[in-house]
Amino acid sequence: MAEIRFDLPDGQQVSLTVTTLLNGGYAGRSQDDVAAHVAELAELGVPAPTTTPCLYPVAPYLATQTDQVPVQHGRTSGEAEWALVIAGPDERDVLLTVACDHTDRELEVHGVAWSKQAGPDVLGRRAWRLVDVADRIDEITLTAWAGDTEIQRGTLAELLPPAFWLDLLRERGLLTPGTVLLSGTIPMHAGVDQFADSWRVELGDPATGDTITCAYQVTRMPDPIG
User: Fold this and answer.
1) Does residue 125 fall inside a structural domain?
2) Do residues 25 and 54 make contact, with C-beta atoms less than 8 angstroms apart?
3) What pLDDT shows up at residue 105?
4) In this predicted structure, what is the pLDDT of residue 113?
5) 9: helix, coil or strand?
6) Residue 104's pLDDT is what?
7) Domain containing residue 190
8) 64 and 117 in contact (C-beta within 8 Å)?
9) Buried b vs exposed e over 25-54: b needs ≥16 C-beta within 10 Å?
10) Within a domain: residue 39?
11) 225 belongs to a structural domain
C-alpha cells in the first residue's frame, strides 16, 4: 500500500497508508461544464458515460507524491483536481490537497476505468484541514499547466463540493482512514495541447494567499522488445 505524508499550515505533519483510492469523473456542478468535458474526451474517441457523476476505484498504490511519472508513449496527460484525504476518524482529520490524475489517453478510448489504472494520481505534499477552508471552498482556485502553457483555470465552485463526496463515502462505508478521493476535473482551455513533458497543478486560497502545488516531469520508458 502507498504511504503518503502531508505538511499542514500549523506545522503538523500527517502520514497515512492509502487503503482505498477513488477517482471522481464528470463531476461538474454545471451540466454545461460536464457536457464540455464529455466533448473534450469525445474528440479523443472516449465514449460518453451512461451516468454522471462517475466514481472509479483504482489501485491504492497509484496514490503518489512523486516528481517523475514514467509513461509508455506520448499520449498521456494530467488533469487538475483536488483530493480529499481521510487521515483519521475525526472531522479535523479530513484533509484537502491538490492532485493531478495522470491518464493514458490511448487506453481511455477502450475504457475510462482502465485508463485511470494505467497512470498515477499525483498528490501535493501539503494539505489544508477541510474544516479550516470549508466556509470559502467555492473561492479556492484550481489551475494547471502542461509544460509552460496554462491549460486549465477555475474555482472549486465548478465541481461538486467535498460535502457531496463525503456523504457518498459515508453511505458506502468508505469514510474511513486511508481513503483518498480525487474530485474530477474542470474543462480545459479551448485549442490547447494537453500532451507535454511536464505537468503542474495548483490550489490557491485567495483569502490567505496560500497555495498548494504538485508538479512532475513526464519521462518516456525504453521501447519494449516483442
Assistant:
1) yes
2) yes
3) 84
4) 75
5) coil
6) 85
7) 3-220
8) no
9) bbbbbeeebbebbbeebeeeebeeeeebbe
10) yes
11) no
Residues 6+ apart with CB under 8 A from 5: 13, 14, 15, 65, 125
A 10 A CB-CB count for 198 gives: 16
How many Å from the N-terminal Cα to the C-terminal Cα in the chain?
A: 31
- Measure the CA–CA gap between 184 and 83, rounded to whole angstroms: 9
Dihedral of CA atoms 144, 205, 137, 100 in degrees, nearest 10, equals: 30
pLDDT tens for 127-142 read 999 999 999 999 999 9
Whether 47 is in a domain gets the answer yes
> What is this structure's pTM?
0.92
Count of domains in the chain?
Answer: 1
pLDDT along the chain (226 residues), means of 10: 92 97 90 72 73 91 96 91 98 98 84 82 98 98 97 97 97 97 93 92 98 97 89
> What pLDDT shows up at residue 182?
98
Rounded Cα–Cα distance for residues 71 and 41 (Å):
20
CA dist 26 and 39 (Å) reads 11
> Are the C-beta atoms of residues 214 and 98 closer than 8 Å to each other?
yes
Cα 192 to Cα 12, 131, 147, 209: the distances in Å are 39, 35, 11, 28
Q: Can you give the CATH number for the domain in which 78 is found? A: 3.90.850.10
How far apart, in whole angstroms, are the C-alpha atoms of residue 99 and residue 203? 9
